[in-house]
Write a structure and sequence with these properties.
Blueprint (H helix, E strand, L loop, with lengths): L7 H12 L4 H14 L3 H12 L4 H10 L4
C-alpha cells in the first residue's frame, strides 16, 4: 500500500502496519523497499526502525542496504 499513495500519512500507516506483521519474512521485503525507496525521509526512517526490530541475516542485509540513504 505504501507505494500506491502520493500522500504521506497513508505511507506512514502502511509501514506501521508492515512492522506489526508477525511473519518477518513476509514484511521484510516491503519494509526494505520502503526504507530504500520512499521519497520522504520520515517514512524511510520508520521502515528502518521496523527492520531493526526483526531478527536474522536477512534483517542485517536489509539494514546494510538501507544504510545508503540518497
Amino acid at each position: 500500500q505504501w507505494t500506491n499513495w502520493e500522500y504521506l500519512m497513508p505511507r506512514v500507516q502502511a509501514v506501521t502496519g508492515l512492522a506489526a506483521i508477525e511473519d518477518a519474512q513476509e514484511a521484510t521485503g516491503a519494509l526494505v523497499a520502503a526504507a530504500t525507496g520512499d521519497k520522504f525521509w520520515g517514512v524511510r526512517q520508520d521502515a528502518v526502525k521496523a527492520i531493526g526490530k526483526l531478527k536474522g541475516d536477512a534483517t542485517r542485509q536489509a539494514l546494510l542496504k538501507a544504510a545508503v540513504d540518497p
